[in-house]
Amino acid sequence: METTLTSGRIRVRPRTRANIVLHVTLIVLVLLTIYGLATLDTRNINIFTAFGDMLNNFRIVLFEARLKNLSWLELFRELMITVALGLITTVLGAIIAFFVALFAAQNLAPRRVTDAVKAVMAFIRAVPTVLWVLFFAVTAGLGSIAAVVGMTFHSISYLVKAYAETFEELDEGVLEALRASGANWWQTIFQAVVPSSASALLSWTFVRFEINFSVAIAMGATAGAGGIGFDMFMASAFYLDLRELGIFTYAVLIFAILLEWGATRLKETVGVKRQA
Amino acid sequence: MSLLEVDAVTKRYGPETLALDSVTFSVQPGEFVAIIGPSGAGKSTLLRCINRLIDITAGDIRFAGVSVPTLRGSALRRHRIQIGMIFQHYNLVNRLSVLENVLHGRLGYKNTLQGILGLYSEEEKREAVRILETLGLSEQMYKRCDQLSGGQKQRVGIARALVQQPKMLLCDEPIASLDPSSAKVIMDTLQEINRSTGITVLVNLHQVDVALHYAKRIIGMNRGRIVYDGAPHNLSSDQIYHIYGSEAGELILDLKERYAA
Ligand SMILES: Nc1ncnc2c1ncn2[C@@H]1O[C@H](COP(=O)(O)OP(=O)(O)OP(=O)(O)O)[C@@H](O)[C@H]1O
Ligand SMILES: [Mg+2]
Question: Which residues of A touch B108 (CB under 8 A)?
Answer without folding.
Answer: 181-183
